[in-house]
Amino acid sequence: MKNIVWENLSFGYTKTNHNVRCYYKDGKWGEIEVSSSENIPIHIAATCLHYGQEAFEGLKVFTGKDGKIRTFRWQENHKRMVNSAQGIMMPEIPADIFWEACKKVVELNKEFVPPYGTGASFYLRPLIIGTGPQIGVRPANEYLFLLFGTPVGPYFKEGFKPVNIQIVRDSDRAAPLGMGTYKVGGNYAASLVAGDKVHKNGYAAALYLDAKEKKYIDECGPANFFGIKNNTYITPKSSSILPSITNKSLITLAEDMGLKVERRQVPVEELPSFEECGACGTAAVISPIGSIVDGEKEYVYSKDGNAGPISIKLYEKLVGTQNGDVEDIHNWVSIIE
Ligand SMILES: *Cc1c(COP(=O)(O)O)cnc(C)c1O
């Protein structure tokens, strides 16, 4: 293994030793297999290649001060993966296979799990793809569940520093009765052009509005949105956003801290009234939002380049729970070893 400078890692792919695979055939899942290959042989007519039968997950593993390796709410990732699979007619992956795969990938790649205090973590990426051939638009008869891991640093190069984002008004990533609530690759393909555009405009991420009326906040590309005002944590309710486990956790932590929580439609006109805003997700953790640009308008949330006080508290509680510094009062953490 080459020497990894943990502190310098970005959110990118680093080759590790092993990944695990499990095949679905004749109506059932097989045994977990270990592979040291980064490739998969695949049928030229596999449904994942032609018709987008692909769903994925993302969860992180952390080393604590005590040297123990912890996962955070993996059961939620499993549940969501089952839901995504159902949304595109793929078979459910059983919880025990999902959890065994997580543990195995960590155990087989322990030297790639970043130590405590480096700001880096080990990212697990499970996916299910349709591997059976079809030419007509139909679900495949065979599937592959694959899980690999890779050490990662912060999603945004700014880390826990405010980023500037831009509202997208000329494209949508998901429709109200479409695929937005499923973690499927197609949603990301749908976001690439808009993402490229906002990056070229100098912004860290795109902020999407509801596809139907363009009146309400949906989410940031790969992260949910929240705003804070009057001691209240406010996050959009929408049928086209991905139910973020980070957001769900922040809601609980906000309630623990005595904040009120509102999950409701958030009109664009409300943006100027927020005291703090953030984007949240496994990859981004909390990314404080420094400003939101909407055409000629700009709403500024951070003038000094720092996150607001409530975002900081939420971040510390969340990250502390994940790495074991803060007591896990909600039973969110599972120790791998
Ligand atoms: C994965 C994802 C998120 C974040 O969800 P977490 O469970 O917090 O990682 C938010 N939005 C989209 C579109 C996603 O795919």
What does this molecule look like?
This protein is of the alpha+beta class and 337 residues long. It has two domains: 11-152, 2-Layer Sandwich (D-amino Acid Aminotransferase, Chain A, domain 1); 163-321, D-amino Acid Aminotransferase, Chain A, domain 2, CATH 3.20.10.10. It has helices at residues 47-50, 74-87, 95-108, 185-189, 192-200, 245-256, 309-323; strands at 19-25, 28-29, 33-35, 54-56, 59-63, 69-72, 121-130, 143-152, 163-168, 205-209, 217-220, 224-229, 232-236, 260-264, 276-281, 285-294, 297-300, 333-335. Helix 6 (245-256) packs across helix 7. The chain is globular. The model has no long low-confidence stretch (mean pLDDT 96). It binds pyridoxal-5'-phosphate (PLP). Pyridoxal-5'-phosphate binds at residues 58, 183, 219, 222-224, 242, 244-247, 281-282.
Count the E strands.
18
Write down the domain tally. Answer: 2
CATH topology (fold) name of the largest domain: D-amino Acid Aminotransferase, Chain A, domain 2
Bound molecules: pyridoxal-5'-phosphate
Tell me which oligomeric state these chains represent.
single chain
**Total of helices:** 7
Low-confidence stretches: none
Mean pLDDT level:
96
Largest sheet: 9 strands, antiparallel
Q: What CATH architecture of the largest domain do you see? A: Alpha-Beta Barrel
Portion of residues in helices?
A: 10-25%
Task: Indicate the CATH class of the largest domain.
Answer: Alpha Beta
Order of helices and strands: EEEHEEEHHEEEHHEEEEHEEEEHE
According to CATH, the homologous superfamily of the largest domain is: D-amino Acid Aminotransferase, subunit A, domain 2
Radius of gyration: 20 Å
Structural class by SSE content:
alpha+beta
Distance between the termini: 22 Å
Broad shape:
globular
How much beta, percentage-wise? 25-35%
